[in-house]
């Protein structure tokens, strides 16, 4: 797969569709602009789809799983085997993402892009393993450049497949014990903020572990020297396989003109890699929510994205993306289903005083 | 109806149910607390219902309609007849609240509690007219004390009826051209803030009209001298019929131990009247969102309520309440449907470092 060629095909969305959509929104039986961000979401979907009256989209959330060598540095509150155990939980439908995706009417696709060890032929799992866990970035690069590119390729391929299958709204998610650590490293390198400002408690570590986590990230960055102007270098040296998969999914979504809802902290690190490769991807991104993880806002700000929800979530998996899909879809329903002033026989005249 | 007696029956929710619910939440396959406010919503529903494993509730949104004599002072961008026209739009299913309630799986009940003129026998409309529009509060009290009490009674009666019918999640909404004006008056009187700090542009008025609106409210308050320690006096003198209906619905919901999602600025003015009559109603309140209307936050703060959504909405009707219901229900589904660590075979052991 030639990632550069795919990226070069990404187009910005067309302004005229925003304007056409706003014209209809202004004609619906409500004060102009009074549905706030729901109107924004409708406009954006119309423009991304290049369709003045889009259907309600088929929805899918991609939950990428991967392990992290750096988890051996004691940066997480959970043991590494939980990544694998949670993959089985996803496949049985018992995890948070399963519940919320059902609530949102979205499918969940679980991808092994970098979990330690083999799954053999587990039913329902998409096996696209690039690495069997990353290497410990505290001791050297997490992945080779080629592996990082392969991870991105996995995401692009999934985007292409699900575009062909008729899915029109994508969400991202992930599972990987230790993966707030590489995400904070990416956040620090690509936003230029100090590590301590973008590193939080992940699954809920103590003050002492947080201090260690910050040191580990600082040392990984000073050892590997990731190049901030080369996002693939950053992904390889201090990233992770599932983060690469998410970056690829964002690129593939944009190339297929499909909106993609990015979940929380780790998903946003993946999106930031994609954005670094091609800022036009932003036109296709919806930021689901702002996580409790402290570095999240800095990455959203870097891309100029305003989160849809603020519910103190910090689970990942795609849980915030599923919830945000419900709100985005509400915007499209407003656009499709509300009566216009003419249809409803409602006066759209100002008293002349307003 | 003896409102005082009904109010005296309102009970605070029982602490032990919060604790029991949290115990289950902590046993679900996720880091403790990582689903943030979804967990809060689940805990609160368990405690309100006094049921360790509540069913998904039947949902209904009550959209109270009323007209306002003060609209004659040129405080709105829309002519008064729009209230009536929008009632017909609600009944035909073409308004924003119809679309979003369908999205949330909630019914919409439209109540005429104070629209100007008669509707005769319009199918689907709940006719509980107390006044044919309020009087102009700039010239005297908007309603008599008896009328205000009747409006509250309408809301209580509806809460009782729908509790009997098996509905277990209520939402509030309203329609009434000019009704941000009495809502700002209530906000000023009951929060003690200056009128200019709690008065916004409503449906979207100009600077000049906003200035006039503030003056009208200030004069209405200084003329009528509503007593801040007597919420019914405030409702009568500077309130509105639909605001009274909402206050009654909140009281009736609390008395029936049913959670009630209050929509935006005007609904919150109604809830603040109810809260003034009995602060225990707070245990049953969910604040759907924070409106773009500037006085909203002050009222939410007065009751110590944190809004669920922030989507720049300012339409009313119950639109924010419908959306928030989807999020609240997501919390209950998490609680009901997620696997526990034991069920899923996922390690819930810290590495000892976290």
How would you sum up this structure in a few lines?
By secondary structure, chain A is of the alpha/beta class. Chain A has 14 helices and six strands.
Task: Give the topology, please.
The structure is a homodimer of 354-residue chains.
Chain A: H1 3-8, H2 15-27, H3 36-49, E1 58-66, H4 82-92, H5 96-104, E2 106-114, E3 125-127, H6 145-164, E4 167-175, H7 180-191, H8 207-224, H9 231-238, H10 241-255, E5 260-262, H11 265-277, E6 285-287, H12 296-303, H13 319-337, H14 341-344
Parallel strand pairs in A: 1-2, 1-4, 2-3, 4-5, 5-6
Helix pairs in contact in A: 2-3, 3-13, 5-13, 6-9, 6-10, 7-8, 7-9, 7-11, 9-11, 10-11, 11-12
Structure description:
With 354 residues, chain A is α/β, with parallel strands linked by helices. The longest helix of chain A is centred in the middle third of the chain and has 20 residues, at 145-164. The first copy, chain A, is globular, with a radius of gyration of 21 Å. The mean pLDDT of chain A is 96. In chain A, strands 3-2-1-4-5-6 form a 6-stranded parallel β-sheet, with helices on both faces. In chain A, helix 6 packs across helix 9 (231-238). Helix content of chain A is 48%, strand content 10%. The first copy, chain A, has 2 domains: 3-54 and 335-343, 5,6-Dimethylbenzimidazole Phosphoribosyltransferase, Chain: A, domain 1, CATH 1.10.1610.10; 59-325, Nicotinate-nucleotide-dimethylbenzimidazole phosphoribosyltransferase (CobT), large domain (Rossmann fold), CATH 3.40.50.10210. Chain A contains 14 helices and 6 strands. At the A-B interface, helix 3, helix 4, helix 5 and helix 13 of A face helix 3, helix 4, helix 5 and helix 13 of B.
């Amino acid at each position: 797969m030639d990632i550069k060629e795919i990226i070069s095909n990404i187009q910005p969305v067309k302004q005229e569709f925003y304007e056409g959509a706003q014209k209809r929104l202004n004609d619906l039986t409500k004060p102009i602009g009074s549905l706030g961000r729901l109107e924004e979401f409708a406009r954006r979907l119309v423009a991304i789809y290049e369709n003045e009256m889009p259907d309600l989209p088929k929805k899918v959330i991609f939950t990428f799983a991967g392990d992290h060598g750096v988890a051996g540095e004691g940066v997480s509150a959970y043991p590494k085997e939980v990544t694998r155990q949670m993959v089985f939980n996803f496949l049985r439908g018992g995890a948070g993402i399963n519940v919320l995706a059902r609530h949102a009417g979205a499918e969940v696709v679980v991808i092994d892009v970098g979990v330690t060890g083999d799954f053999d032929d587990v039913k329902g799992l998409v096996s696209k393993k690039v690495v069997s866990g990353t290497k410990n970035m505290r001791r050297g690069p997490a992945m080779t450049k080629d592996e990082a590119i392969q991870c991105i390729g996995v995401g692009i391929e999934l985007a292409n497949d699900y575009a062909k299958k008729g899915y029109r709204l994508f969400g991202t998610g992930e599972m990987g014990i230790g993966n707030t650590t590489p995400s904070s490293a990416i956040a620090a390198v690509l936003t230029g903020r100090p590590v301590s400002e973008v590193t939080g408690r992940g699954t809920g570590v103590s003050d002492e572990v947080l201090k260690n986590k910050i040191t580990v990230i600082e040392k990984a960055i000073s050892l590997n020297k990731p190049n901030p102007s080369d996002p693939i270098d950053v992904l390889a040296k201090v990233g992770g396989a599932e983060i690469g998969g998410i970056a690829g999914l964002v690129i593939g979504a944009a190339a297929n003109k499909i909106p993609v809802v990015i979940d929380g902290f780790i998903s946003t690190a993946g999106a930031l890699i994609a954005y670094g490769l091609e800022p036009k991807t932003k036109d296709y991104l919806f930021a689901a929510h702002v996580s409790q993880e402290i570095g999240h806002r800095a990455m959203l700000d870097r891309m100029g994205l305003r989160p849809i929800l603020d519910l103190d979530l910090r689970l990942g998996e795609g849980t915030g993306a599923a919830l945000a899909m419900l709100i985005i879809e509400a915007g499209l329903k407003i656009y499709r289903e509300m009566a216009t002033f003419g249809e409803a026989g409602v006066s759209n005249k100002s008293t002349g005083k307003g």
